[in-house]
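User: I'm writing a tutorial on reading structure tokens. Could you give me a worked example: one chain, its sequence, then its tokens, then a sentence or two explaining what the tokens reveal?
Assistant: Sure. Here is the example chain.
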Amino acid sequence: MASALDVILVDDVEHLGKAGELVKVKPGFARNFLLPKGAAILANRFTLAEYEERKVQLEAEAQKRRQEAETLKIKLEEKTISINAKAGETGKLFGAITKENIVEAIKEQLSLDIVKDQLVLKAPIRAVGDHNITLKIASGVSTTIIVQVKTI
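And here are its predicted structure tokens:
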């Protein structure tokens, strides 16, 4: 079994640590997630020395991203997104509203570029009405938007 790798976090990673921290992770997690996304760099004597020089800059960048996320959170709180869909007389949809549909509606109505992984939706929406959806803006910053499903 492979031993843990030391990595330096470049970004805040939920359930792992804040930007600038030196953490131990499994090699597969580093290779398949952290390194390709640019969320971490491998820790060795060269990167540790370089990191010490850049630590203040990395922390300032992370703080700036958190402030931008907080500003966006305030702007988005309790925003309503409308989606039209076909439904029966009882209000049950013919089909379902998925994360992709919600992302598309957010892009059109709020001009906000998000990815479906930022939405917390346990199951597709299958009924007409208002639905509270959590939107993860950044690590530790999330807000609730209202998805209003109307019949055509």
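What the tokens reveal: The two ends are 57 Å apart (CA to CA). The chain has a mean pLDDT of 88.
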